[in-house]
């Protein structure tokens, strides 16, 4: 069973949160509400999110300040942030949003289809990264002796073949996603994130190849996550 991704919706107006939920419900992911920057930061302490939709104009801690806190934290700095704003003060205002760490900046009223499409790209990238981490963790566990704990012990060659097949499935999905981004002329940030995912997949594939019999590879060949 594939675990759903979490999407954080941050807006001080309940009607705006309801509208976002209505637009994004078709993605069938877990939508988490926050009515202030402080509430958003509290949610980010315990949960992992695929993407954050962050209103710029909020009383107290506004969207820019909230984003700055998110980007300063090691745990949350890589979560994509899409700024939503009902006002437009020109290029300087937009530049401030990108400088604060946003991957996109959308003015209200926005096209529901466009917003849903943008969010879905980051959800897919998040899911692929989760799959990659799981495959790397499984490989490490098996190579470091986890298999002796009892369940389905296999010969090294059979284990490597199974892990290679699982990795191939993730590689195929990542390739399809990259082609989709190219076809849709997606945001540069989404393309860069997809490229980063492909680089990590390539590193894991090389590590697996190095562990083939006769190559002299070891668990130390595994790439670190980051």
TrEMBL record:
Keyword annotations: Coiled coil, Phosphoprotein
InterPro entries reported for this sequence: Bact_response_regulator (IPR050595), CheY-like_superfamily (IPR011006), Sig_transdc_resp-reg_receiver (IPR001789)
This protein's record includes keyword Coiled coil: yes
Domain Response regulatory: 6-123
Pfam families assigned: Response_reg
Coiled-coil residue windows: 160-187
Modified residues (4-aspartylphosphate): 55
Protein name in the entry: Two-component system response regulator
